Amino acid sequence: xxxxxxxxxxxxxxxxxxxxxxxxxxxxxxxxxxxxxxxxxxxxxxxxxxxxxxxxxxxxxxxxxxxxxxxxxxxxxxxxxxxxxxxxxxxxxxxxxxxxxxxxxxxxxxxxxxxxxxxxxxxxxxxxxxxxxxxxxxxxxxxxxxxxxxxxxxxxxxxxxxxxxxxxxxxxxxxxxxxxxxxxxxxxxxxxxxxxxxxxxxxxxxxxxxxxxxxxxxxxxxxxxxx
Length: 227
Description:
By secondary structure, the protein is an alpha/beta fold. The chain has one domain (4-226): Rossmann fold (3-Layer(aba) Sandwich), CATH 3.40.50.300. 33% of the residues lie in helices and 27% in strands. The chain is built from seven helices and ten strands. The strands form two sheets. The protein has a six-stranded mixed sheet with strand order 6-7-8-3-9-10, sandwiched between helices. Strand 4 and strand 5 (67-68) form a beta hairpin. The longest helix is centred in the last third of the chain and has 16 residues, at 174-189. It is globular and about 45 Å long.
């Protein structure tokens, strides 16, 4: 049996005291690749933020990578996020550091200390996204697609149990989006669980997978041909 990575039971997601999704029930198993789709404002990002504890879970029951979202204490949030890989639409790379130092910064911030171990880990995650030769490049020297690959590498640094990708292709052209998707699919095929919020229906058609839709304050599974 596949291990359950995420379980939500009768959850209501709030954004500034407004319920944006109600009666959410979801189980995500180890190795799943699941899309979350829906119009802007339908609750996709609020849903993601609740999963990495940027928004509190106050209604319903939810566990993610063995953490209870409802009883999660402030001091435990960094430990939860260490077990999650989070990929944002806008990359969030530190502009004053090269690729290597961006990744090293994250490792140091999450408790790594040995220089050699950090170097091995940085090379390994850059290999996985095809960016090992870009270690000394500054973010401004990289294309959008290259920056997102680095962001994905950063998300892999602590060998997360679950990757939350919030519109990872939102700022990319169609061809670059496909390249980034290829990276994500390969990572998934190697065993990583991925939950990806997107509005890019072309990617859904090209890389079909289980799809959940946010609409009218509900989250429900859709058959892809009716997306």
